[in-house]
């Protein structure tokens, strides 16, 4: 990611700051958590489906995948007292275009759009997650912001699998209605 002329969309998830190149953003939509249908896809970063203007989009939820669930939430889940709907409430979904396909990206809060001023390579040993998800690190108001490489979130072979799963899911829904 080059610094010159790049605009970032900064957002927050579980108190952590993230950003990506604004060129990938299509729209920001406020929704209720109940509008997302939980769906455990074969692609680990996809955790739901959502109806966007009559089209079913896969929802990228980085909480569990990036290990952002808090220990308190994990304890409540184990005790059976955790209410996902209440915890998540109203959220922002970032409709993004990844490799000419629309996806919804779940966030807690959109912070701002800002130019990329400082850019640092993503350190190789900072995470156990595949490096493909991160473009680097930047700063926002004296805080570190992880720059996401969302163009690499879903690869072509993963999209083929997702597409087949979505088609099968729609067909089974139609069959149960008939």
UniProtKB/TrEMBL annotation:
GO cellular component terms listed in the entry, alphabetical order: cytosol
Pfam families: CheW
Sections of the chain in a coiled coil: none
A biological process from GO: signal transduction
Domain CheW-like: start-end pairs: 5-159
InterPro entries: CheW, CheW-like_dom_sf, CheW-lke_dom
Name of protein: CheW protein
Organism in which the protein naturally occurs: Candidatus Moduliflexus flocculans
């Amino acid at each position: 990611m080059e610094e010159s002329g790049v605009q970032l969309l900064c957002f927050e998830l579980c108190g952590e700051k993230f950003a990506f190149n604004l060129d990938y953003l299509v729209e920001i939509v406020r929704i209720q958590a109940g509008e997302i249908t939980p769906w455990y896809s074969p692609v680990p970063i996809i955790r739901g489906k959502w109806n966007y203007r009559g089209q079913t989009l896969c929802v990228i939820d980085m909480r569990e995948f990036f290990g952002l669930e808090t220990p308190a939430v994990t304890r409540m889940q184990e005790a059976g007292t955790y209410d996902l709907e209440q915890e998540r409430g109203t959220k922002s979904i970032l409709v993004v275009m990844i490799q000419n396909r629309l996806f919804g990206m779940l966030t807690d809060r959109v912070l701002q759009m800002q130019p990329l001023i400082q850019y640092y390579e993503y350190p190789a040993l900072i995470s156990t997650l595949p490096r493909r998800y991160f473009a680097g690190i930047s700063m926002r108001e004296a805080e570190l912001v992880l720059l996401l490489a969302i163009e690499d979130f879903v690869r072509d072979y993963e999209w083929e699998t997702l597409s087949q799963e979505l088609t099968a899911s729609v067909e089974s829904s139609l069959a149960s209605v008939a």
